[in-house]
Amino acid sequence: MQMYGKFAGLYDPLMKDVDYDRWAEYIASFLPEGSLRIADCACGTGEITIRLAKMGYTLTGIDISEDMLRIAAEKARKSALKLPFICQNMAELQLHRPQDAIVCACDGVNYLDSLEQVGRFFSAAYAVLKPNGLLLFDISSRHKLENVLDCNTFAEDDGERAYIWKNCYDPESRLISMELRFYEKQGELYRRFEESHIQRAHEEKELLSAMEKAGFDAAAYGFLTRRQAAEDCQRIQFIGRKRK
Question: Could you tell me the pTM of the whole model?
Fold first, then answer.
């Protein structure tokens, strides 16, 4: 599973157009009423974690990248929130207290680049959850990785920072290679660095089957809806309820 390194410091500026408020509200719409304990896996810089905490839930942020967690912790402090952040591979998830829900937003499961890794995450989530606990995660769909991102290059320059993002999808392995090159302004010069990321195009049916195998009653929806995902849907939301 890849982790964000130097990219962590540029992640928020480059994601500035994401409507995290709506995203967090959508996640919360699946949660039952009451005081819930929630683990946010692949929490990144904590945008969803902090919003859910402000809604009154008890949050723990989990990510494999220490750089991302460092930023998340600082943002939580600035919001006067005392949130624990744990550096951990979500496929090896372990927590001291049972959770009412586990959340994983914005491609965390895509970074699990095999069904074996996915199964490990689902089994670990099942072990951590209370009876009837919820597993909520979303993925970038196969349609998006195969037809929207593949062979495409994206670039942006806002004067302070710039990036070039190239994608190459392998239909046999269903893995997409993302090559990112960044330029960050420092005085009159720009600092350049590069990162590579790999994601897997998981199929909706295989994820639902893996969730059922791990012990969840599972369903999937087109993102931000309660409707079945269309064939050209770019993001799919999954919800699993732990069977007793």
Answer: 0.93
